What does this fold into?
Amino acid sequence: MSIPPARSMTLDILRYCLDQHQDIQAAVNRVLQKAAPGPDQGLATELAYGYLRYKGRIDFLLGQLLSKPAQTSPIIKRILGVAIYELLFLRRIPEYATLNWAVNLVKQCTSQTMGKVANGVLRNVLRLGQTVHYPDYYKAKAVDYPTYLAAWYACPLWLVQLWLQDYGKESTQAFLQSTLQTPPTGVRINNTHLEAAKLHDKLRSLATRSWEWGMALKEWPEYLHLAVAQGHLTRQRLAAQEIMLELKAADWPSPVYDACAGRGGKTFFLAEMGKEVWASDTNTFRVQQCRQESKRLGLPVPLFQASGIKSYPVHKEPRTILLDVPCSGLGVLSRRPDIKWKRTLADCEQLVALQRNILDQAAQELAPGGLLVYLTCTLTRQENELQVKRFIHRHPEFSCIRQTQSSPDTALHEYFYGAVLHHTGRPKQNQNCSAEQ
Ligand SMILES: C[S@@+](CC[C@H](N)C(=O)[O-])C[C@H]1O[C@@H](n2cnc3c(N)ncnc32)[C@H](O)[C@@H]1O
It folds into this structure.
């Protein structure tokens, strides 16, 4: 029996994403571009994202239901995991259809005996009924509170423990709850365009939250594809725009050097604000994407591939340096559920060292009076408050004039952290900004 195309695509997406370390959207695009258009594409995407979002809870259930979970091969657990996701969350798919493809695939991959085991596990999931949709089931089975949180909120235990230690119980529960939500689609209207006001009026009724030119939309009307192609609109999460507003980007002195430009999300946010800006990134492909963005939006921004902060070929002094640094990305798990299964504590430590290096380089390039703006999309104090506190300790000529983080209960389900550091020109001993130890 051949496996239905949507499940085959799902398993391919998960293989590229989890075994070959592609990011989830790149893995989805790679698989879907070879597939025939149709509903299977949507189902495969839904299954891959959903499985990654709930993998921790599903693995916990498998741990309860398999007689030898540690000895069961990862591929069998993945097939069963996707099938359990279908049984628990996709009511429109008949149960027999799920059992049929999953049991047959397990048989094909291993043996008749293993097929019987798979059948037994999936039938036992069905027997558990509604209980598995309530936290009490996991509370009763888990050995302690962090293990319960890890199972119910489907997050790795190390991350739950880190958040409990860094942020306490209440905020940790809010962060964990957010990881299971689907974040809204964010857009930014290109206000340098003649069509901007018209587009703004058209979209206003679809916005669940907004600022002047940015919105979180409850739906994506077809006509927006054209608006994006014509450079009237950019997809950018609203939480990423809000952090720029909270850090008072409009008041940053120009010229601004965006030294970690990526695809240019912040670069063009600033350019549309009327700032003189130039940008670089270490990654050649991202610089190319940034150039395409520049063309698409009709905003000519100087862009460079640079191996470090010093190496940009602009013979001007920046008055603001923006560092939207590479980080562990633990604040955006609702959009990128794959990150929680790939990231390790060791990665976070390596990133802290890289961020420190980038900050120290940037400090050398900024004249007194200038601003250094530090941004992450993560939730670890080592990469956020403590990184800033330690920077100020090494560079007492800087003073932290603003520091902010998305609220734990944000309806946007994504978390950013940012700090504005002012080069005072003189060493200072007592630093403000309430960064705790
Ligand atoms: C968080 S992303 C930037 C996102 C971007 N600002 C946006 O809004 O779309 C961080 C970027 O830093 C770049 N990067 C990595 N190492 C770097 C380094 N040592 N110096 C400067 N940039 C670096 C990465 O290539 C990545 O594009």
